[in-house]
Each structure stands twice: as C-alpha cells, then as structure tokens.
Amino acid sequence: MRKIAFLIVLFTSFQIHSQTFELGPQILMSSSFIATDLEYDEQTSGSGIQVGLFARYLSYNRLYIQAEINYDSKSATVSDIDETQVTDYNLKLRAIDSNILLGYKITDFDFGRFHIFAGPGLSNIIKDEVNINGTEYLGADVVKRSWDIHAGLGLDISILSFALRFQRTLTDLNNNSDHSLRLNTVLIGLGIKLL
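The structure assignment produced for this chain is given below.
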C-alpha cells in the first residue's frame, strides 16, 4: 500500500512540474488595413493598440493553450481619387477581443522558448465610426460582433513574451450585403509573465 501511495505522489509531482501556468498583462501595437470588394485608389493602414491579459497553460508535451482578453482600438483608410478631388473613407473600431490560441513549442533554450500559435477570436465591437473626409457618416451599419482567426509566432525570454501575429477578420463587418468589408491586422506584442 505504501508503494502505491509513493508512486501516486511521485507521478503527481512529475505531472505538476511538467505542466506550467503563466499569467500576465500584454500590449500589442497594430497596423490594420481594409479588405473590401469596393474599388478604391489608395489605402492607408491605421495604427492601433490592444491592451489586456493572457493566461497560458503549458502541458508536459510541446502543446499549450492560451486565453486572452484585450481592449482593441484600430482604424484604416481607403481613398477614392478622381480628377477634381480625393475622398477618404476611414473606419475606426473599438472592441473587446476574446481569443483562444493553441500553440506549439518549437524549441526550448536555457532562458526561454520559441513557439507558433493559431486560434479563433471573438470581437465585441463597442464603438464604430465611419468618416468620409473627416466628417462622421451616420448611415454606417457595422456589425456588433465579428469572428477572427489569429496566427503567429512567439519568443519567450525569461518573463518577457514577444509575439508577431496576423489577425484576419472572418465576419463581414458591413450589415449591408451589397459590399464586403473586413479589417485585417498585423500585430507586434509584448507580454510580461507575472506567474
């Protein structure tokens, strides 16, 4: 009986040490661009920011799962140029993003690891604004929720977690079915592992 109890304690301690939980704040700087079927002459990517928390569970093998909740602010502009004038169409979004990412550790080294990840996200849009030449267009009909897919790579060094990722919007943001409108984003981020 003692041998069985000893084996259970030993097995449990190996399981605890081989699995890790990480938690901390993160900040991501973004560059967004509009994907649409409308014709336009120029596009200006907009800078943005995401601020939030991440929680990561690393299993004893190379897989991990990461949950995130972020406040997201982003924008982008397209321009229609004709002979007499330029018309700028600007889209700004503020959202609360919830993401679930599945990751794979490619390699570990003495003070960190290199990994890749992908997964779905849900954006709950809390504010949208469409401007035409700097004037707010009140006739815009933007959805209140959109699904995204995230993919990227990360480098962890000690308590710092660096990430480069692409966020593709899967949901058409325009409730008007005549035209497609999506806002895709490239992000560079830094997280700090407090646990």
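Interim note for the steering committee: Residues 20-192 form a domain with the Porin fold (CATH 2.40.160.20). The chain has one helix and nine strands.
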